[in-house]
Amino acid sequence: MTTSSPTANAQSTDNYLTFTRGIKSWMFTLDHKRIGVMYLVSVLASFFVGGLFALIVRTKLLTPGEVSWIDADQYNQAFTLHGAIMVFLVIIPSIPGALGNFVLPIMLGAKDVAFPRLNLFSYYLWVTGAFLSVYALLAGGFDTGWTFYTPYSTTTETAGVIPVVMGVFVLGFSSIFTGLNFVVTIHKLRPPGMTWFRMPLLLWALYATALIQVLATPVLGITLLLLIIERAFGIGIFDPDMGGDPVLFQHFFWFYSHPAVYIMILPGMGIISEIIAVHSHRQIFGYKYVAFSSIAIAIFSFLVWGHHMFTSGQSELMNVVFSFITFSVAIPSAIKVFNWLATLYKGAIVLNTAMLYGLAFMFLFTIGGLTGLPLGTLNVDIHLHDTYFVVAHFHYVMMGSALIAMVGGIHHWWPKMFGVMFSEFWGRIGCTLVFVGFNVTFFTQFMLGSQGMPRRYYMYQPEFQTYHVISTMGAYVMALGFFVTAAYLLHSLFFGKKAPANPWGGRSLEWQCTSPPPHDNFSTTPSVGNPYDFSDVRWNEAEQGYEIDPNAVPSKDTH
Amino acid sequence: MIHLLLQAPSESTGQNALMTSAPVTPADFWLPEGASTFAPQVDFAFQFVAWISYFFFVLVVGLMIFFAIKYRQKGREAYARGPSHHTMLELGWTIIPTILCVFMFWFGFRGFIDLRTPPQNSYQIDLTAQKWAFNFRYPTGAASADQNLYIPVGRPVKLVMRSEDVLHAAFIPAFRVKHDIVPGRYSTLWFQSDHVTEGWNDSDPLKQKFHHFFCAEYCGKGHSGMYAKIFVLPQADFDLWLEKQGRWMDDLKGDELWQVAGPKLFGRCASCHSLNGSAGTGPSWEGLWARASGGAGSDGKLDNGRETYSSLIGPGKKFENPESYVRNSILNPGDHIVVPYGNVMPTFRGQLNDLAIDAIIGMMKNLDKFDAKGKYIGGAPIAAK
Description:
The structure holds two protein chains of two kinds.
Chain A: H1 6-10, H2 23-27, H3 32-60, H4 72-107, H5 116-138, H6 152-155, H7 161-188, H8 201-233, H9 246-280, H10 287-300, H11 316-344, H12 353-370, H13 372-376, H14 378-384, H15 388-418, E1 420-421, H16 424-450, H17 465-495, E2 497-498, E3 537-540, E4 545-548
Antiparallel strand pairs in A: 1-2, 3-4
Chain B: H1 2-7, H2 39-70, H3 87-115, E1 123-130, E2 133-137, E3 149-152, E4 157-163, E5 168-172, E6 177-181, E7 187-191, E8 211-215, E9 227-233, H4 235-245, H5 256-269, H6 288-292, E10 301-302, E11 307-308, H7 309-312, H8 322-331, H9 354-365
Parallel strand pairs in B: 1-4, 3-9
Antiparallel strand pairs in B: 1-2, 4-7, 5-6, 5-8, 8-9, 10-11
Helix pairs in contact in B: 2-3, 5-9
């Protein structure tokens, strides 16, 4: 239990936003909180751009034939940019880079991550990667699809391929350094009393993510370098005309990119564990199962890449083996969902915006996970492969789950990050619009895909048009939802009520420093107990927030 | 059609088509009509997984909504007592999904092995994929003239596929089959359809039933237009059809050759070459004959700026006459590239015979008698076919 005085920590008047002033104090900051905020702004700006390209693609698909305002080449560039931006610039860095950077050291009661300079360097690598991508766009664009499959990517005439591949290469290193930083921070900077099994589950999730980032991303780097070498110097590695093998590229690519799926979703699962427990004011159910399932997912994630290649021409035996292992990754994901469900049981549930995003995640991830099952079933996958069914499935997981968790996390920690409360009324409206719009957009795509509509199509058979029109309408509703969300969050920065230190009743350490936190997070190293034991939390009417009752008798609950 | 079906000889299997007939699986909420022998098996596996999914979805979301309503926070309650774990429950929701997963794997595995094991007596059709067309070649050496795939009913058909350029994929939703076509190797795909596509030879295209044959692996600009129709024919009709493929141009007399065969052949060129001067992947045919014959535009740059049409074509030059230049450009497209276009056109050597090249040249010479889509609008004397 907390023996140091949380009130002393909560009383400091300066905060990290006002600690120093001026643009340079941000650009050269080593403060993990400021770096987190810079990541947040950059990632959200990229999300806006990637979203615009999605709307372009969806608007084209209102009609089956050619349209005058965008031709096939431009359409191919638009969906390529949408995919590349959303994967490499938004989802992969979003939760570790923005929320992870901000929350992780505070949750540990530490002053910063283990390597603050490396952290800033990671951010500037991200910026470099983003600029290389913009340069690639200006240099002539690229139409390879975000997967860069050879030999199309080594022979296409668009001039931006090498710059964007360089950009993704650099972004990979940004990701590796962030992962390295988190692994060391979690190993070395845990405060006295915080054993592995007293870590908040977000830290388990970020730790599992960091392991994948460090181990898998170098493979992507090598693969992209080989791609550049082949394209620039004509050295045959993947192109059969020069003695290479295009299927080899797919193996290399998915050896990274399947684990990368878990780089995207695992931190989201961590956030959901926090949101569900805190807003239910109740001990998380099955802490150890949830924690170990993160590690199990991280391990299995390295063994299933071949399920992206069931139709590629890899051997039948490998298809069978990969199908079998793929089903094993379903189990830890199911365990997590059931444990979140059991956490709701006998809770004291508050349906505020953050919790609504948490429940939306459970709904969407359940669909995203279950629709992975037909894709793992070999003969059914043969029919569904490379159709809109796959598009819908990975949007349910990548966007409906990972990104919705990110948005939920932003709402959960917004009072902590900026010291202000946003409008719960508009928050609930924004969440509803996003949730409804998302389902209308992507559920129709399951039907499109199972009925045989291939992906990455500029034109399509007229029989698919009804579904496409419904899907596009859903995308507009979702866009409206995100605009509402952006509006009330920005509004709250200027006009929001001042946030208490602990608005939701959380028990992990970040809720024990002021909102926003002081530059050094904690004046004294706090000691910690069970992060999900809420027995000593009580409501303080004067503060309009929760506080820890210093006189409470410690609960006997242990893991 | 049914009487034809009954008469259809099935030499290779030695069985009547109807005896091996698998039912057509009707279209439902999820899946389109299934017309191959695989369809019932694939659809069963799909429905098996779907019903498991419905069950777990209703369970999870139902309980979630129920709990979220029943266990609402009362006042400012900051601590709710609930169980922290339950070992039997944890074991239950680990073991039961595991068992279900084993069943799903098993159904998928069994079906997949059938999907990947073509029978010994399969009828082989060679498929060459290129940006952005499928070319089907039959055992007689004939190619499908209209680029569509015609197959005999009730007989296993094996496609042996290769790619001229980048990755493509053959995808037939109604047959539940798909396989990538990888450059530098041969890939195979097999299927059997026991149901004739009604009205396949009806002169009214709206009355023709057919199955879609899509490219499912992204291959660039023309990816979504890389498409063929599949017609399933009674064996006797199929034999007649095949007989005609090799020599359909032989019967065309005089100008009929370019009037009738020209537009049909142009269908393959249309994805890159326009007839009205609008820009495409390759140069428009408009004015092409004039440029090649020393007329307007004959100073147009060729071959990265080193040559022009007039320095290349004419008596005593590399090409004696414009016909030789066009023929060479079809068979060896990379020899002389028109500035500023790239070297992307595949060779049509082995796909277009001399008669076909004559028909294309005839069409180029008489472009004013065709509309922008390649339809002949010159009036008589065209013999209705």
